[in-house]
Amino acid sequence: MARLPAAKVVCIYGVEETDESGCTDKTAVGERMKLPGGHHFDENYPALAKRLIGEIETRQGKANVAEK
After folding, report:
1. In the predicted structure, residue 49 carries a pLDDT above the cut 90
2. Strand pairing partners for 35?
3. pTM for this prediction
């Protein structure tokens, strides 16, 4: 993970898997997003999808501004 471009990385993990997640590793890059639940985020996939889409849209907006 340390080789990935930090500006393009959002590492999402469940609060119940903090100790096992690669997101909490000291070498992990990018933004960390801790969500309720474990590895399957309490199976609340619609909420997870909404958060992911929001993050993608935010980053696309930042990229579009940088290009201008």
Report:
1. yes
2. 14
3. 0.70
